[in-house]
Amino acid sequence: EYFRRRYGFSPSCRVVAAAGDNPCSAAGMLMREDADLCISLGTSDTAFMLSSTATPRADVGSIYRNPLKRLSYMPMVVYTNGSLTRESARDYDGNARSWNEFEDLVKSVPKGNNGVVGFYLPRPEIAPETNGNVSRYFNESGNSVEDSDLSLGTRCRAALEMRALAVRYHTTCLGMSKPARIVATGGGSSSPSMIQILADVLQCPVYVSPTVNSAGLGAAYRAFHAVQCEAAEKGFVDFSASISSKKDIESERVLKASPDSDSKTIYDNLYRNYIRCENLVRDDQQG
Question: Whose C-alpha in 16, 159, 173, 198 is 20 to 30 A from the C-alpha of 47?
């Protein structure tokens, strides 16, 4: 009655349980359970997956219900230090640069950043939880590296590798399985270096979704699915099977990066060091 009076909806219009923008984006991108990891790279960064299992970790992220399937989950990690932080790393010395120059700086340092792991978090962060103004770097032994000893290229690569390593670690903490592929969205997905680092750190291909407004499309899909479920004898039908345009969306996804097998050992070692150093940052913030 409220929607009919307030917005002029038809009295026969069905109203179903709502969902937020990220769950609806999962629907709009037709994500596969335990296979697709969506990473949105914008002002804030977000990583989520439709998952058959979940491990609650309040210090890492949130667990939602899968909006598309019964008895399933959607773990999600959100990072406040996104594109603005990468921009800050790019212009760290006070000189404004283009993103092409940023790409050149990242490429000037080898994969794995010569063993350097960075935590450049000028804004209060969620995972790991910090109060802001964190700028700490560690060598491969876990010892602190002085800011003055870092090149600008090292800082820029650290900003990208930090995000990929954090996603790998925190999604694992929340019980997500190793993804079969990554679907990247947001402005940061246009960075060739960021996309390749994601592919190398998580060792899976990275695709870019052509859907501009995946949340709006997903909300429409969910409404259509609700009508189909209402009409079904058993009261529920498979979401993916109910969306006839699935193959069209799949064919439009663009492969942007494939993992370099030679980088696996490099990033496995850096990943272990990242976990150790994140714990040091957490302890320092809590102390």
Answer: 16
